[in-house]
Amino acid sequence: IRDLVRSRGLGDVYKRQEKGDAIAKSAYDMLGKPFTEGGYSAETGFDNSGLIYYALTSNGVDCPRGLTAQKEMGTEIALEKLEKGDIVFIKDGDSFFGGIYTGDDTIVFSPYPGQKVRTASMKSVYYTDNFLKAVRVD
Fold first, then answer.
1. DSSP β-bridge partners for residue 66
2. Which of 34, 57, 71, 132 has its Cβ near the most Cβ atoms within 10 Å?
3. With contact defined as beta carbons under 8 Å apart, do 47 and 108 qualify?
4. 99: closest CA among 41, 24, 3?
């Protein structure tokens, strides 16, 4: 089957899917970890950009630490084209936050102090109405 994949030029697609699955799993495995200002590890907990940083760098993706820089990396993706491992950004008043898309219309994110890493449905009105941008990284 590998020869068939190579002959049809699908190898890059499968590599991307494997990396996306791994990024999504890294984020998903952190569910329940505490929000920690400046946090970016399973041991200490995560702030919003720290969870994204952790999920990407754990899978060999060069990633800036700040949310604004993370929003500018990769290739922009439309909401209806999301794949596992994509980074999703949501407007929140005058600011925004980000999460990792884990498939099945779900993102994993570290919301704010006093909360834990959790999931949210991208089908909810709040998330679709406030969708800012999504990016795919290599």
1. none
2. 71
3. no
4. 24
